[in-house]
Amino acid sequence: MAGTRRISVKLAGKEYPMTIRQAEEEKYRRAAQDINALISVYKTRFAAEPEDYLAMAALQVAVDKVGLEMNREMTEEAQRLQKIEREIDDYLNNI
Question: Is 22 in contact with 4 (CB distance < 8 Å)?
């Protein structure tokens, strides 16, 4: 495939080969680093199986993603409210 690259990322000590778009390689590598960092934190907090560390890391990443989405939605709602406020101010200033 044009514009793709075969890479291998290591998560929890296991290699995962994949084919990705070249432009996204850094994203994948940084994501793997973040997940491995979370796994290291969980390993210091409790003893569990490797898949449990991966599950907890996946949950944390998903929670962070949902938090960002909710924040973005709130920001968009605040922008809509500001627009309505400006329209009301304009209307009141012109009557």
Answer: yes
CB 54 within 8 A of CB 80: no
Q: What is the pTM of this model?
A: 0.71
Pick the closest to residue 32 from 58, 70, 64, 56 (CA basis): 58
Token readout for 51 is 């898949």
pLDDT at 60: 95
CA terminus-to-terminus distance, the chain: 63
Report which of 60, 17, 18, 68 is spatially closest to residue 40, judged by C-alpha positions: 60
The number of beta carbons lying within 10 Å of the beta carbon of residue 57 is 21
Q: Which domain holds residue 10?
A: 4-93
Question: What is the domain count for the chain?
Answer: 1
Q: What is the pLDDT of residues 36-68, one digit of tens each?
A: 999 999 999 999 998 899 999 999 999 999 999
